[in-house]
Amino acid sequence: MPELPEVESVRRDLVRRRLKGARVVRVRTSGKPLRMNTPVPTAVLGKAARGRRITGVSRLGKYLLVEIDGPLSVMVHLGMTGNLLIVPRHRPWAPHTHVVFELDDGRDLRFVDPRRFGMVDTVTRGREREHAALAELGPDPIAEGIPDGHLWERARGKSAKVKTFILDQRVVAGVGNIYASEVLWLARISPRRKAGKLGAEDARAVAVAIDEVLRFAIDNGGTTLRDFVDAGGEPGSNGEFLLVYGRDGTPCLRCRTTIRRQVDQGRATYFCPTCQKR
DNA sequence: ATCACGACCTGGAGGC
DNA sequence: TGCCTCCAGGTCGTGA
User: Fold this and answer.
1) CATH architecture for the domain at A4-135
2) Catalytic annotation on A240?
3) Per-residue pLDDT tens digits for A3-19
4) Is any atom of strand C within 7 angstroms of residue A12's beta carbon?
5) Burial of A26 (0-12, 13-18, 19+ CB in 10 A)
């Protein structure tokens, strides 16, 4: 579920629900490991957050950063099925609730993740990039923008397919499998094209499409295929407006050719074989 | 170094 | 109803 637009939708909803200003009174965890079988660092989270006030929520690519009035921020990645929810304390824990920040206003901030592909950790504020997960992230296309020429420079010499290339978080932070298909359709680039074969114009078209696709999705509150909801439990509506993802067998919105599905490195790609020729 | 692939984990959908 | 297979928003480790 969670690519950049979904994570940004959660971030905005957390702000809207006044997470900022709340004080953490206790941190509780399920004891189950998350991504890569890594244990949730319960003691470190408690030390970072207990008794402290939340001062803001920011985002880097698909990572959320809950800032606290101490030296550490809490970093959250939603994986495939993670949700970060604000709920009243009296509500029973949903299945697969793995980390709970109890707040002084009677609410909880809860991380729920059935598949446990997500992660929760701490980072030093001001030195976020020193965390291994953030160290190599490319520019955030919304928060920072993609510099002119960046994609073309990074693509030079690459024999990987262009779709793989834009999914690489070291190139650009935030594009995932849904929006990769959307971006290539909008830019009229074939997903079969090798990244290194992109011309400067093609690369620029990809950068423009990334910006447009992600902003549009954010405006719609993100895409909910199945699991994604914001901090209040509300799904996003962008699924209604997808241009090509999941539309195999139906006519291309531009040229009416039947949309095809192919699998690249184990992941579904949707594209129009006629108008994605670049 | 780069790339393709399988693994990680759970649950929902669809076929029989 | 139940069992089976396939599929899913992401990343990481392996081996060629």
Assistant:
1) Alpha-Beta Barrel (3.20)
2) no
3) 999 999 999 999 999 99
4) no
5) middle
